[in-house]
């Protein structure tokens, strides 16, 4: 089999070695082999039989594509804002409930409230051991919650990714949004009627069975990839999607701080469930399907789909094994970094000694972090793309994240938290850019399977974060408040090394146009 991968004048059909088209401009006709899944399929299926297949467009976003992306971003951003409101209220409510259980009748004596969570300057030394025990119990509940919600999510994300190539993309939004709504409403019922904390496991199971957060992230990124060109507009589009999500997420943190302080914990949960119900309505009636009938994959059995999801990382292609290596390296980087982001100790870390922050202060610093991330994504991202390739931007992002965690590990004063978040301003660029690089390495009719594999990795990271880092915090909080963040910083440093290895490997290779992260 012969081919020309470096020529700018000819394009060879890999199936038979026949000249298909002349590259006079970027809008060309071509065929490619998806070597990693062992299928010879066009990058996009032809709309009409007998006509040559067409590639993904290489220009920017079309008007209809921009409308689709905007609609999906509105839905997901509102959903993430609602879930942020709910998770903030729920995590703080759980800690206060355990605090009341541990202190018993003494809880009323020391006046622990949302504005004074660790009873600073009021019997702090006397009740220090009991408060540490409350933190430990809350951290352990997080572990159980992740087991109940994330183990089902592993299988659900597999199914969603496999069948999104056949039945369309809207299911990737509708399923997880339904789970988020049930989770928030169950949490409200438990908090409002003061039921046992453990009734929350009902909502946790529901959110797991519908895919959890990784499913909705899979939806927004597959949808964005469907509506963007095969160039850096995809990277920027995915960064914008991540920015919109994080911006709404951060603003809601500020709002919920005041909301909790004024109304307690139950009503923010109810508000979150109403917003999520509204998102479901928008998604059902206004979100358009982007996977056209002609481009849908043939129906596959679950076994075939399962193999396809993981074939990117383990199957050797017909030409060489470089793409398998690249998928594996990027998958490891994604796993290590997402594990660090999945840690749910931030609220407890800030609410307790030596910081002892109120809900309002937590909301303020989280909003600051979100605004800084939005500035980085909207303003600095374009500048970085002009002088750096996507893989190098990932390295910058990882270094930023590692430095931020090192500062948090030794944080003793309020200003150190702001320094940590300022140093980590580039970290939000990493995951969307990795997703964009991966999406350019596969044809569109395998994209659902690819993002299903990413979602499975993401679910696994939440499990590891809960079983590992949350447990570590539970056992070490009494003697080193920030030890968990030090371990996280070391993990991110390891991910940085792997990303450097990926970049060096890319530089040493003569890439084809199909997978060249520099050119596309």
UniProtKB/TrEMBL annotation:
The keyword Ligase does not apply. The keyword Transmembrane helix applies. Signal peptide: none annotated. Pfam families: MFS_1. GO terms for cellular component: membrane. One of its GO terms (molecular function) is transmembrane transporter activity. It is found in: Membrane. The chain crosses the membrane at residues 66-86, 143-164, 171-193, 199-224, 236-260, 266-287, 327-350, 417-438, 450-473, 479-504. Residues 34-60 are annotated as: Disordered. Its main location: membrane. It is a multi-pass membrane protein. Keywords: Membrane, Transmembrane, Transmembrane helix. This is Proton-coupled folate transporter-like isoform X2. It comes from Biomphalaria pfeifferi (Bloodfluke planorb).
